[in-house]
């Protein structure tokens, strides 16, 4: 097999974050996903299989035996990813990249940060006909499987998006309180999902990452056809080149985005709208930084 | 309406079809790979988009229709649509006298000749027609005239009047209404001037020759004589003399002999011999149905005699094709420019 997905995502994340993110992921207490704090419990002898990074070197130096720090159970945080693996996510993003790649990158960043912290990550994805669900695990293999499930589950042959089902499913199967990252596109979660989202916020800490869609008119590249994944139909050049149509379409899309953003703001859910694979990592890091400050303020 | 360069028109149509087929099969390969987008179902709900799509569809349909019209128009134009009419220049100066023997044995043939001639009047243009009937004496039914309305009504009327089986009526085997009797009586009025004589063919023919007027003008003159030549009485002229009179006056004689009769072969032979001796033409048929074709033959013979070789006149009609092509191309340019 080629390079693992996680490694590739990591490389991408490194490339994008470089120095900026280094501080964010150094040390437990300064984790991006700031939890309940450093609930140090006990020291215990190192057992094969424990993480090398958990070794408390100072204590080891004092005692002469490798000791690792033991934390409270709640210290191990649970992350969950709710990925929209519908066919809509296999389409093109606003920056011309694939929305799926952007989604894998976003999920990869979550996994990457979880890996550095030893957090557990679970996945909810799929469709009513073929639900996908992965339990909370932290191993590299698990994270790799998780990313692959997202990547391979999102094809143009996937069913049409059903955000109501996905959120309901996420609520039902994720019983433990988690930091939940929902990855979908600009049109979702729709304002119809408001009550479901509110129920989710009662149990989970929500992050919503939305990938913007490509312009359905593609007015600057009339040589290429535009095909809607769910409603394939011919869009005439006349419609695509018309200034008025362009304005009206833009207005509609802005209104739709605003409606979703407004709903999420109302629910006090952190959210972002990324243009695609080129910006999603940067956008996520900015958002997480903002979150960190706001948490610190509390 | 004929199309002289029909193969060119066909070629243009086939070529257009071939070009269309090639374009049709390759229509997708011109475009680059499509961009797949999502969440664009809302487009249909945007009025300006729906309107633009409708306009584009209408324009495309218009383009197709205009292209088809343009191709058809140019094909028609290249095919050179023209009307052809056969013109025999000298025919307009013909004088024709129908010279009918209306003795009892001839009535079927006379009916056929008259009704066929009535049908031919439509194609006349300048010709003059006259009708003279004879039995023992001769009567001019109508003189030479180019009043075709009169000719037609008169011929139709006469054709009906002469359709009368006199012998059958006398023997009581045929019954006719009063009206029909009067029509027949009116028609034969004046043709039985000499009692106990009938079918004085040479005198009748000579009388027909008197029909021609305008002796000083250069006109073609012909007599169509229909008779069984069953002379029953004393004639002033002999048949040969009568025919000679015609020849002297430069009148062509076309004789129709209706086949077997009582005097049979001798009468036929005499008629044929005399006719042909004076540069006439002799036709014989016992079938009244053959008369239209015989009259057509007479027409042709006459044309040859007059040296009027029928020439085909072609008149091109480019206006419709030109207009169609011009408007279609104009429309194509406009619609194509609009859909840019």
From TrEMBL, chain A:
Highest taxon in the source lineage: Bacteria
Domain DUF58 positions: 45-214
InterPro entries in alphabetical order: DUF58
Pfam families: DUF58
Protein name, as recorded: DUF58 domain-containing protein
From TrEMBL, chain B:
Transmembrane segments: 6-25, 58-77, 319-337
Name of protein: VWFA domain-containing protein
Entry keyword Membrane: yes
Top-level division of the source organism's lineage: Bacteria
Chain ranges of the VWFA domain: 95-298
Organism (species): Brachybacterium nesterenkovii
PROSITE patterns: VWFA
SUPFAM superfamilies the UniProt entry points to: vWA-like
């Amino acid at each position: 097999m080629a390079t693992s997905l996680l490694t590739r995502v990591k490389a991408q994340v490194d490339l994008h974050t470089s120095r900026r993110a280094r501080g964010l992921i150094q040390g437990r207490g300064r984790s991006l996903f700031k939890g309940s704090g450093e609930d140090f419990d006990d020291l215990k002898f190192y057992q094969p299989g424990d993480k090398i990074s958990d070794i408390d070197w100072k204590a080891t130096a004092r005692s002469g035996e490798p000791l690792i720090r033991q934390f409270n159970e709640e210290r191990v945080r649970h992350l969950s990813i709710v990925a929209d693996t519908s066919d809509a996510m296999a389409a093109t993003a606003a920056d011309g990249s694939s929305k799926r790649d952007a989604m894998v990158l976003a999920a990869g960043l979550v996994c990457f940060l979880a890996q550095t912290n030893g957090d557990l990550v679970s996945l909810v994805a799929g469709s009513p006909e073929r639900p996908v669900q992965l339990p909370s695990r932290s191993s590299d293999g698990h994270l790799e499987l998780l990313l692959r499930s997202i990547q391979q589950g999102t094809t143009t042959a996937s069913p049409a998006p059903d955000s109501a089902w996905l959120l309901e499913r996420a609520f039902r199967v994720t019983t433990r309180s988690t930091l939940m990252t929902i990855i979908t596109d600009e049109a979702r979660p729709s304002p119809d999902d408001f009550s479901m989202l509110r129920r989710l916020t009662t149990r989970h800490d929500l992050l919503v990452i939305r990938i913007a869609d490509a312009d359905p008119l593609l007015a600057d590249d009339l040589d290429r056809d535009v095909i809607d994944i769910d409603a394939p139909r011919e869009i005439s050049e006349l419609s695509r080149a018309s200034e008025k149509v362009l304005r009206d379409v833009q207005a509609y899309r802005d209104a739709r985005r605003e409606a979703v953003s407004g709903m999420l703001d109302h629910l006090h859910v952190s959210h972002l709208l990324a243009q695609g694979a080129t910006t999603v990592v940067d956008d996520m890091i900015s958002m997480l930084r903002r979150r960190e400050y706001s948490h610190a303020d509390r | 309406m004929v199309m002289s360069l029909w193969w060119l028109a066909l070629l243009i149509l086939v070529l257009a079809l071939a070009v269309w087929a090639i374009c049709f099969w390759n229509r997708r390969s011109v475009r680059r790979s499509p961009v797949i987008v999502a969440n664009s179902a809302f487009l249909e709900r945007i009025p300006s988009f729906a309107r633009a799509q409708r306009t584009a569809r209408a324009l495309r349909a218009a383009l197709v229709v205009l292209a088809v019209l343009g191709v058809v128009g140019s094909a028609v134009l290249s095919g050179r649509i023209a009307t052809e009419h056969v013109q025999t220049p000298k025919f307009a100066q013909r004088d024709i006298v129908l010279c009918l023997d209306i003795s009892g044995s001839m009535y079927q043939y006379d009916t056929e000749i008259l009704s066929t001639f009535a049908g031919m009047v439509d194609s006349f243009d300048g010709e003059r027609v006259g009708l003279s009937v004879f039995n023992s004496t001769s009567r001019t039914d109508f003189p030479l005239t180019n009043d075709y309305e009169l000719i037609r009504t008169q011929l139709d009327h006469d054709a009906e009047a002469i359709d009368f089986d006199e012998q059958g009526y006398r023997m009581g085997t045929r019954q006719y209404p009063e009206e029909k009797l009067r029509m027949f009586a009116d028609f034969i009025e004046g043709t039985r001037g000499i009692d106990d004589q009938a079918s004085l063919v040479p005198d009748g023919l000579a009388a027909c020759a008197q029909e021609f007027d305008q002796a000083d003008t250069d006109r073609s003159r012909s007599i169509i004589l229909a008779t069984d030549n069953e002379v029953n009485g004393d004639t002033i002229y002999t048949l040969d003399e009568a025919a000679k009179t015609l020849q002297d006056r430069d009148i062509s004689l076309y004789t129709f002999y209706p086949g077997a009769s009582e005097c049979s072969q001798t009468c036929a032979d005499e008629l044929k011999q005399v006719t042909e001796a004076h540069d006439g033409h002799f036709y014989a048929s016992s079938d009244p149905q053959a008369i239209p074709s015989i009259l057509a033959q007479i027409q042709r013979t006459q044309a040859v005699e007059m040296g009027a070789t029928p020439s085909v006149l072609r008149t091109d009609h480019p206006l419709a094709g030109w207009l169609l092509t011009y408007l279609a191309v104009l429309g194509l340019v406009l619609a194509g420019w609009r859909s840019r």
